[in-house]
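Agenda item 2: glutamine complex prediction
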Amino acid sequence: MPIFKSLEELHHMLVNKEISCVELTRSYLDYIDSADSRVKAFLTVTADSALMKAAKVDKKIAGGESLGSLEGLPMAMKDNMCTEGIPTTCGSRILENFNPPYDATVTERLKASGAVLLGKLNMDEFAMGSSTENSGYHPTANPWDLESVPGGSSGGSAACVAAREVPFALGSDTGGSIRQPAAFCGVVGLKPTYGAVSRYGLVAFASSLDQIGPLTTNVRDNALVLNAIAGHDPKDSTSVPFVKPDYTRFLENDVKGLKIGIPDEYFASGLNSDVAEVIQKAIRTFESLGAEIERCSLPHTEFAMPAYYIIAPAECSSNLARYDGVRYGYRAEADDMIEMFKKTREKGFGQEVKRRIMLGTYALSSGYYDAYYLKAQKVRTLIKQDFDRAFAKYDVLLSPTAPTTAYKIGEKSDPLAMYMGDVYTIPVNLAGLPAISVPAGFVDGMPVGMQLISKHFEEGMLYKAAYAFEQNTEYYHQVPALLKEVR
Ligand code: GLN
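Presented output:
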């Protein structure tokens, strides 16, 4: 079955003509047809355009042309990245009929790399949530236990990679939305440095925090995808002109002398003791590989959550003001314009999105701005300084990605309890740092993710550490029960 192969293996299969690109694409589409009725990761499947593109790749192969490393390989994207002429709903009813007139930069770059888009993936509405239950369409299931959530907001991206419906997917991460679902679904998820991957054409949630990144089954594949999507983009004013390395050159399975800091605050109360044990074991693995481990402190960690829940809703209330039924998306019938705005937003947005808009509007309103927004920005600086101090000593910081494993669909109804699941991921977004979640073990058959954090633009360091860990543990060979039937 091609679905168990890595990107590199699939590439060689195409180059050596063991399988044609049309056959490969078809086998994935057929598999999606059967598996996704249970996983429900996809909102749109783009079978026709995928097969057309595959035929073009086959022509290239037949003509003896060389293939790029992602050329002809299947993938899917979270439904908040614009794809020209292909629905981009953001998981929201308000954008149900929205077909963007242009491609996001990541879409353009993946197209240029020759990767084949198989479809668009489910998510929490406008990326607000941690379980994909806030999707305006349907929840997605965790392939390890179909009754559990896949995490969120990039739940569709993590679930479809875990179920091997595609070898890679793109997600977006504002407060943990790549890393937490990657942890819950037992896959590798990277949130790049803020400014490393263009946000042009990514539908904005909280613009100063949003970042796109790859989800894959293994670390090498992740680096290959980052190679294709990272780099400066003049269309995004927050994109940074930096020298992009070949990220695969950091995959050397050697962490001798690597300095790893273990922040005390990430192992405090709230962390499930079984998850803690898995992470402690991971730390010992690094120790046995020759890394230097030391406890450290990021003293302002407890203020990250409250600061995030001011800053992110504030930016969201401003970004989501554009959905008024006038230019695109859903429009409600009404007698006058103001009534139309009101009804469109009332019917088009789900509960969580409305909650965030209200929180943000309140925090920004005159008289409260200094008390909330300005103060939150000051806290943000303190959090960044915590990390700066830690990185003066350490190459990498290590923590759990989430305090628990995946919970059951419908189990968490209190929004605050849901918010607390992001305690270890949110500080990283506030500081704009890169971080990766790597499979680190299991608790009662459900995957646990380990988070590694590094300095700005040092994704290579994350790959180096993650790869050594992966190569010396057996976790990434394990697959969900769902797949045992296929194998
Ligand atoms: N779960 C967090 C939230 O609801 C983070 C979401 C994200 O990273 N997009 O805001």
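Discussion summary: DSSP finds 16 helices and eleven strands in the chain.
Owner for follow-up: CH.
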